[in-house]
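Example record

Each entry pairs one chain with its bound ligand, adenosine monophosphate.
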Amino acid sequence: MPLLVVGSIALDSVDTPQGSRDELLGGSAVYFSYAASYFTSVRLVGAVGEDWPVEHTRLLESRRIDTRGLQVVPGGATFRWRGKYMTNMNDRETLEVHLNVLGSFDPVLPDDFRRCPFVFLANGSPAIQLKVLDQCIGPRLVVADTMDLWIRSEHENLVEVLKRVDGLVLNDSEARLLTGEENLVLAGHKVREFGPKFVVIKKGEHGAMFFSEFETYVLPAFPTSTLVDPTGAGDTFAGGMMGYLAELDAFDADSLKRAMAYGILVASFTVEDFSLDRLRQIDRRDLDLRMDKYRRMLSFDA
Ligand code: AMP
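Structure tokens for the complex follow.
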């Protein structure tokens, strides 16, 4: 099944203990799309400026990513983000954000994108996420991402988004900020009370937690010793998870658990190099090989 994603498209500059890079291909929707394209065809909606290198569009198109929803704004500049990771690689500081074309982004879904059964609202303003939802016709599964910035600055719109989505993906500090609850198990269920049927809390190197009315569980991260740049780990987690669900055309409890595992595995490759560099070297077989190791790692006799 095709999967629609709307979110940021960026040129990122990152500083990690492993090195610094400027103007890398990034953005929530880019990371998400690339990860999801191991599993299903993706329809990408976002905005870039005239400075957007055309080879980035070609790279996306070389995967199963339909870029007809990519708006190139005449005279505009692409969104820029600059981040620095601390030595533990878990904490990061945003040093610069230049919204540029993202500041006036008005998402317009091409007609045939509107009936996409699987929809992901990647990190972006809740006002934009609502505009996307208004254009979608009869989606079967809608999942959103969010971040601290929107929890603080657009709380009302975010609450509206939460009433209209099936699932929410956010990280541990964001779940605490949204609910005022320190205990993550309680926080996860409190987020559900805003509306989503399921909530995933990402915990970086500690994996991800899942919450629904019937289930609460945690899956560990896949232990990789090569940690170069964590940027995009969260977005590629979501891309792997949603891509797998769209491929399967299912979102029952067992499928969701396997989808979480695929998300964790795609993210474990993402962090092994800058930008999409590591993901560009791997294919579906590499994911499945890592899935075998991950399964063995998690199974034991009672
Ligand atoms: P992640 O590491 O998965 O949390 O996501 C990192 C990506 O989020 C980077 O590629 C950034 O370009 C993008 N990003 C950072 N800040 C924002 C923002 N305010 N709105 C949308 N995307 C953002």
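The pocket of adenosine monophosphate is lined by residues 8, 10, 12, 26-28, 81, 97, 123-124, 149, 231-235 (CB under 6 Å).
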